[in-house]
Amino acid sequence: MKGNYVLGIEGTAWNLSAAIVDEKNVVIEKTATYKPRAGGIHPREAAQHHASHITALLKNVLCYASENNITLDAVAFAQGPGLGPCLRITATAARTISLSCNIPLIGVNHCIAHIEVGIWKTEAEDPVTLYVSGANSQVLAYRGKKYRIFGETMDIGIGNALDKFARAAGLEHPGGPKIEKLARSATHYVQLPYTVKGMDFSFSGLTTACMESLKNGELLPDVCYSFQETAFAMLVEVTERAVAHTGKKEVLLAGGVGANKRLVSMLQIMCDERGIDFYAPEKRYMGDNGTMIAHLGYLQYKAGDTTPIEKSAVNPNFRPDEVTITWKHPQHRQ
Amino acid sequence: MILAAGAEAVIDLVDDVVVKHRIEKKYRLSDIDLKLRQERTRSEAKIMSAARRLGVSTPIIYDLNTVDIVMEYIYGTQLKHVIDTTLVRKAGEIVGILHRGGIIHGDLTTSNMLYCKDRIYFIDFGLSFFDTSTEARGVDVHVFFQTLKSSHEKPEELKTAFMNGYRMTLAEADQVFQRVREIEKRGRYT
């Protein structure tokens, strides 16, 4: 029996990536990453980067498909959340392919794609997900046909917080990996504000406090270390609360900040103490990637959940709990 | 005897008194962990006393150690087992009093209210804080409505009774209910 193939295009922020998947495998994935010349991500420049690379990228992927006799059944794209100018580039490309190849168009939620690819690539079935990236920091879990947000940042995402501090400290973009490395040579903990309110957390005040500490003569490795220890403890605490509240037995880590080894180890300790399972997919599926969009597109395609062109407008503030889950899922057993 | 074990604390019954012990979290740096547990223990005790001064029944605090609160054991029944419109109306009055006094409970459920000798005791101020904003009050009431919806029959009747009680003690009640409707649309905290 012939399988189904779905093309997915991701381009919500800095990473432009396209992939084709079938039920079980990634057939091909190609990526073009935007690197700011100086400072952080500039939305317009990122969009210009995507616009200038998307044709070659898609040509590459589509040629591979035709050479291997793969016919696409649908094309998926990240409808949001993300940077408006970037989202529009990938949406336009996806609509074009949908119309010219006469295959269904599928708009997917970028956050849910992170969760689903994690479930696909690990043994997790019904986890509480900690999703941490540049712009997003959320604790989510499935209940009543939706991924509910149990806790989230009240201001900026953890990745942006790290990057913002890194820039102030003169480190190059992306700052996260450099902060992680510097933290290893710290000698002491610097007092910093720990902000958890109910189920939500905040990173803006913490970031400012880190910059102040640096100005007051604390050494960079110590501040990097203290920043990580404080911010990650906040994230793990809320994740644990969501676990206790929902009674779920698994935790899944998603998003680019998931590459941080200290965050992984803290989550592992928390899960061990509670006697539950911890899952983190391999790095390539943690940060933004085309595969996750293609995979969620595949799930939605199988459920007949496609997007008519007139409803395919991008939504920079697309929240995961706006989506009713239509696809077959282990969680539906509950 | 362990009465309850949450994400943050263990509630133990020892010789007729309750000891709420905040658990050490190994994932957290011990500097952060100890300071946090101390601060939260102190703040919880402070808010419980403030609630008592407003006339709200809470367990009497006997002792406070760095991360432990030793308090009175209430020989009561959780409101969820005895709930009716009269009691939930009374609960509404008490929440109104807390809110008027600037206290947000933070975890209003029918398990955190104990019915004992014709009085309703409020317990578990672990997530409580001082705030007089409509948003904070709205979230507090919303959490309670969610409990009514998920674990009780005839939630609408109970909700109306609660609202009537709340209106008796808080002048801005209707503003809060308006906010609760907005919060419901956000689809969070469920």
Automatic annotation (TrEMBL), chain A:
UniProt: Fe cation binding residues: H110, H114, Y131, D288
E.C. designation(s): 2.3.1.234
MF terms in GO: iron ion binding; tRNA N(6)-L-threonylcarbamoyladenine synthase activity
Positions annotated to bind substrate: Y131, V132, S133, G134, A135, D163, G176, E180, N260
GO cellular component: cytoplasm; EKC/KEOPS complex
Pfam families (UniProt xref): TsaD (PF00814)
InterPro entries: ATPase_NBD, Gcp-like_dom, KAE1/TsaD, Kae1_archaea_euk
Cofactor dependency: Fe(2+)
Keywords associated with the record: Acyltransferase, Cytoplasm, Iron, Metal-binding, Transferase, tRNA processing
GO terms for biological process, alphabetical: tRNA threonylcarbamoyladenosine modification
Recorded catalytic activity of this chain's protein: L-threonylcarbamoyladenylate + adenosine(37) in tRNA = N(6)-L-threonylcarbamoyladenosine(37) in tRNA + AMP + H(+)
UniProt superkingdom: Archaea
Span of domain Gcp-like: 28-294
Main enzyme class: transferase
Primary localization class, coarse: cytoplasm
Subcellular location per the Swiss-Prot or TrEMBL entry: Cytoplasm
Cofactor binding: number and manner: Binds 1 Fe(2+) ion per subunit.
Function summary: Required for the formation of a threonylcarbamoyl group on adenosine at position 37 (t(6)A37) in tRNAs that read codons beginning with adenine. Is a component of the KEOPS complex that is probably involved in the transfer of the threonylcarbamoyl moiety of threonylcarbamoyl-AMP (TC-AMP) to the N6 group of A37. Kae1 likely plays a direct catalytic role in this reaction, but requires other protein(s) of the complex to fulfill this activity.
Similarity comment text for this entry: Belongs to the KAE1 / TsaD family.
Subunit annotation: Monomer. Component of the KEOPS complex that consists of Kae1, Bud32, Cgi121 and Pcc1; the whole complex dimerizes.
UniProt-listed HAMAP family: Kae1
Listed PANTHER family: TRNA N6-ADENOSINE THREONYLCARBAMOYLTRANSFERASE
Protein name: tRNA N6-adenosine threonylcarbamoyltransferase
Source organism per UniProt: Candidatus Argoarchaeum ethanivorans
Lineage of producing organism: Archaea, Methanobacteriati, Methanobacteriota, Stenosarchaea group, Methanomicrobia
Underlying gene: kae1
TrEMBL record, chain B:
Gene Ontology, cellular component aspect: cytosol
Every RIO-type domain range: 33-126
Domain of life: Archaea
Record key words, sorted: ATP-binding, Kinase, Nucleotide-binding, Serine/threonine-protein kinase, Transferase, tRNA processing
Cited Gene3D superfamilies: Phosphorylase Kinase, domain 1, Transferase(Phosphotransferase) domain 1
UniProt-recorded Gene Ontology molecular function terms: ATP binding; protein serine/threonine kinase activity
EC number assigned by the record: 2.7.11.1
Entry-linked InterPro entries: Bud32 (IPR022495), Kinase-like_dom_sf (IPR011009), RIO_dom (IPR018934)
Reaction(s) catalysed by this chain's protein: L-threonyl-[protein] + ATP = O-phospho-L-threonyl-[protein] + ADP + H(+); L-seryl-[protein] + ATP = O-phospho-L-seryl-[protein] + ADP + H(+)
Pfam families: RIO1
Gene Ontology biological process terms, A to Z: tRNA processing
Family: Belongs to the protein kinase superfamily. BUD32 family.
Protein name as catalogued: non-specific serine/threonine protein kinase
Organism: Candidatus Argoarchaeum ethanivorans
